[in-house]
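Page header: ASSEMBLY MODEL / two components / 305 residues total.
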Amino acid sequence: MRRPPPKRKQRLFRRRKVCRFCADASLPIDYKDPRTLRFFTTERGKIIPRRVSGNCAKHQRKLTTAIKRARTIALMPYAATLSHY
Amino acid sequence: MRRYETVFIANSELADEERQLLLDKLQGLVPEAEDQAMLVKLDEWGNKRLAYAVKKQTRGYYVLMDYCGDGTLVKELERNMRLDDRILKYMTVLKNTTVDLEAIKAEIEAAKAQEAASEAAKEAAAESAIQTAGESATETADKPSTETADEPSTETAGESATMTADEPATQTADEPSTPMADKAGTESNETAEAPLSESVAPEETPESSDQEEQDETTTT
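Prediction written out in full:
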């Protein structure tokens, strides 16, 4: 997923993204809970980068390990196929 | 001692008795002596769809083992899982490098109490539903309290249930049980919708949910 080259206007008016896990401290990052984790992957199963999701470095790191663990135990896909074509 | 968590996937085609045998065997591997090891929790998640095929299987029976022990125990458990054909896959995660036995015992007790409380609450609810039809309210308050006699303050069944339900939640706040996590998941899904759909291409978020549904249907 590439964003279009940043234009000046866009940069000026872009909303500041807040880390979701910092905003809500009660939100756990757990590899056993793929439903939350799925939100931070693309439909193909790739992990969404920090610059897109707006997570802070600390939580992105935790998220990444959680997603990778979930992949290991087959709760999340390594590469999902697109079934609708 | 360290605290570990092992998730393993058993073959979903196993009969209930066979699976019970398997679980008993694995539980038996954890030594009885408390200063060496202790099984904290054995949580069966049940049959789930696998995200990808493992040993040509698309479904599996997930079981979570939460235990304390040292490396030799993990080695032994994993060796057994590797050799056993009934287990498709396993993963062990280190949760904590130090273990406070007393705290864990309290945790187990709390979990048990919570279970009992939830059961009692269910029974009380069922009973009160029956008894509100005609009988006195004092009886409904008395009956469940005798069932949950191990709890200190039991004025009404409803109160004791909420009290015990609160305690474990604070103790196991760092490692929530899966039903709790699931709840949090659904909540976050709702709240998370807005910011992500802005940053990711707009067509992606709705599609991912579509795909999930389709995945479920295309398993057969």
